[in-house]
Specification:
alpha+beta; Immunoglobulin-like; 2 domains; four-stranded antiparallel sheet; 3 helices; 8 strands; 34% strand; globular
Length: 157
């Protein structure tokens, strides 16, 4: 078992018993619990890196999953830009799709999530979900894209 997960399992009961015995209030217990939950998400999702795609509208998000056997899907959602009347772009990739195209390595848990539909020349708020058999891990990142100077997509006729 991963040491951070072990730490979370051991520490939470310890905090509860300390809170009961010493009158520790929820103002201390709640932030520590939130920190430990965040650490467990980091363990599941691994480090996150973003690399360029072929256009400003496409990027690749690289991460690693800890529980390879129960990994089922990766999903992204791009929030609309401020003032837009559009809905978020939401795409889900099945594990089989990612494996067939070389985006998921079941030997080491490395996952590459192709993110497309980004707004060029601005920060894009992207929510990534990693789906497992019993749970889904979610994290948000900001992907800043360069301006697009091709004209075709920024000034359609």
């Amino acid at each position: 078992m991963n040491p951070l997960i072990q730490l979370k399992i051991i520490t939470l009961p310890l905090l509860v018993s300390l809170a009961q015995k010493r009158g520790m209030n929820a103002r201390l217990v709640a932030p520590v619990t939130a920190l430990l939950c965040t650490l467990s998400v980091a363990v599941e999702a691994g480090q996150i890196q973003v690399s360029d795609g072929p256009t400003p509208f496409i990027r690749f998000v690289h991460t690693r999953v800890g529980n390879v056997a129960s990994f089922n899907f990766a999903q992204f959602q791009i929030q609309p830009k401020t003032g837009s009347a559009t809905r978020p772009i939401k795409v889900r990739y099945a594990r089989s799709y990612l494996e067939a195209r070389g985006y998921f390595d079941s030997n080491n848990g490395n996952v590459t999530i192709p993110v497309f539909g980004l707004y060029a020349g601005r920060p894009n708020r992207v929510i990534i979900d990693l789906g497992f058999s019993q749970k889904t891990k979610e994290f948000a990142i900001t992907i800043t894209t360069p301006a697009y100077d091709g004209g075709t997509y920024s000034n359609p006729t």
